[in-house]
Amino acid sequence: MRRLLGALAVALIVLSPVAHAEVAAADPIDASMRTCLARSDMSSTMGQVQCMDNARIGWNSALDSAWQQLETKLPPARRKAWQKSQMAWRASREAEKQLLAAVFATTRGSMYVLAEADMQLQPVRDRALALRNAVTQTDGGPPRHVRACTSDAQCEHAMFDLNRYYHRLQSKMPARSRPTLVRAQRAWSAYLNATAPLVDERGRVDIIGARVATLKRLSETVGND
């Protein structure tokens, strides 16, 4: 059972749909987490969750560091746009925590405890990587024209999938929890709207794609025991 939990925790991290995960494939935070997950004294469910929580804390520190670096090098107009994106991201994360709690409250079993810890970790890792990437650019993002989503076939397809999995999750959630989903989705939409002008079309699709994967995963999780 302990080996199974460890293998499951590693699989959750490896298989999670993380944008640009290859960028940080050898990051010390990830390496430390994998070492922790493999330790015999951390093989219980609580131990595995602690390993992932430690990684989330590490990625949150990396996120804060990247954000501080980005703020210092951005011109005023660009800084204001990134500040709006960062505020929207944080608001989205708070709303998402409530959604995850509502979904996983309908499940039972160790694998779902691990899955929730993983879903708390991955968005923080994604955002840290996005901010690190922005730091490497001279102005915090490409000042290029980005077509409307309705004129971008990949974006339209991603939004179609997003709406499909959103409605699937909504139909499966307990009625009392559906407002939590609505609030989380509105907060995420505000984050997308604030961030899309700062990235290229591929970056926008990556953001939407990560959301599609989250909603799909939650729709396949809610009510399981």
What does this entry look like structurally?
The protein has 225 residues and is mainly α. It has one domain. It is built from 8 helices and no strands. It has helices at 2-15, 28-38, 45-73, 76-104, 110-135, 153-172, 178-195, 201-221. Helix 1 packs parallel to helix 5 (110-135). The protein starts with a helix and ends with a helix.
Short note summarizing the structure:
The protein has about 220 residues and is mainly alpha-helical. Helix content is about 75%, strand content about 0%. The longest helix has 29 residues, at about 45-75.
As for the number of domains, it is: 1
Percent of sequence in beta strands: under 5%
Strand tally, please?
0
Element string (H = helix, E = strand): HHHHHHHH
Q: Please identify the structural class as seen in this structure.
A: mainly alpha
Counting copies of identical and different chains, the oligomeric state is single chain
**Rg, Å, rounded:** 18 Å
Helix and strand arrangement:
Elements lengths: L1 H14 L12 H11 L6 H29 L2 H29 L5 H26 L17 H20 L5 H18 L5 H21 L4
Helix pairs in contact: 1-5, 2-3, 3-5, 4-5, 4-7, 6-8
Features:
225 residues, 0% strand, mainly alpha
